[in-house]
Design a protein that fits this description.
The chain has 167 residues and is mostly helical. It has 4 helices and no strands.
């Protein structure tokens, strides 16, 4: 194998190793974002199930006492759904930005210096979106904790809510 004039084999190998290391960093970040998106989607599915259950309880609610409480829980669950949707969207944009940053790094390694600014912008976007998704997820968690502490969990049925001493 021949090398370029003025470059030793160690320089070429070191350059290739540096490109691989640099390109793998966004891949690990993307893996973390994927885990977060999985968590957000699982949480959204659970909240959606609670929302459907609360709506069923409200339809079968015979008296006004439980109806007010169920309406409060439905509003809280709807806000949580909105927050989780936002966290998923931010996480997806962060993941797409991470992929763009990885592509930009590869293009940059082939000598295209015009993409250097794109690499920084895309990686900054990925970090910003991921941090924002985590902050929004924290908002969902606070709503969930507040709702559980204040109103308790949704009853399995209306009869169960009448025997619960918190209501």
């Amino acid at each position: 194998m021949t090398t370029l004039p003025g470059l030793s084999m160690d320089d070429v190998t070191g350059g290739i190793a540096h490109v691989i290391q640099t390109a793998l960093t966004p891949v690990f970040f993307l893996s973390g974002i994927g885990a977060l998106l999985n968590l957000f989607n699982a949480r959204l599915a659970r909240v959606s199930d609670h929302l459907a259950h609360a709506a069923d309880l409200l339809r079968n609610c015979p008296d006004g006492g439980d109806e007010t409480r169920l309406h409060r829980q439905l509003r809280r669950l709807a806000r949580r759904t909105w927050l989780l949707d936002a966290a998923i969207a931010l996480g997806a944009v962060g993941g797409a930005s991470t992929c763009g940053a990885a592509l930009s790094l590869f293009l940059q390694s082939y000598g295209s210096s015009a993409v250097g600014g794109w690499t920084i912008a895309l990686f900054a976007s990925a970090l910003g979106c991921t941090v924002s998704a985590l902050v929004v997820f924290l908002g969902d968690s606070v709503l969930a904790w507040h709702g559980l502490r204040r109103e308790g969990p949704l009853p399995r049925s209306l009869e169960a809510s009448k025997t619960d001493p918190r209501h």
